[in-house]
User: Fold this.
Amino acid sequence: MFNVGDFIIYGNSGVCKVMGVGPLDEGDDREYYTLKPVYIRDSTILTPVDNDRVVMREVMTREEATDFISGIKDIGTLDVIDERKIDHDYKRALLTCDPSEIVKTIKTIYIRTEERQAEGKKATASDSKYCHIAEDNLYGELAISLDMDKEEVREYIHLNV
Assistant:
C-alpha cells in the first residue's frame, strides 16, 4: 500500500503523487487512493487501493534510476513479428509500465525512423505518437527519481549512455 506523499506510476497517467488514502464516504469499507498526476494539469484520479486492472508501482529510487540509466545500452528492441501489428506491440509494451519495455519501444522506433530516413521517408505518425508517449513516461519517472526537469533527464541520459 502506498502512503500520502508517495510518487507512484499509475498506468498511462504516468507519475502521480498520492494525495490521500481512505474511503470515499463514511461507512464505506473500500479504500481509495486520491492521485494527482504530476504532468497532467488539473487532473485528479480516484482509484481503489486494490485495483488490479491498472499498473500501480513505486517510482524508481535515485539509485535505481542511475543504475537503470547505466544499463540502457544493454536493453534491446521489441520483437516485432508482424509489421502490420506494430501499434499493438507498442501499446502492449507501454501498458506494462516497465521502464525496460519503454526503452525497447523507444529504441525500436528510433531504428525504424533511421531506416525510413535513409529511404527518404519521414517517420510514420504512429511511430511519432508512440515515441512521444514512451519518452514522456520514461523521462517523467526519471525526472522525479533524479529530482530533475524532464529535459534535463533527456540530456543526462544521452551523456550517460
Observations:
- The first strand starts at residue 7 and ends at 10.
- Helices lie at 62-70, 86-95, 99-118, 125-146, 150-160.
- The beta strands are 7-10, 15-22, 32-37, 45-48, 56-58.
- The chain has five helices and five strands.
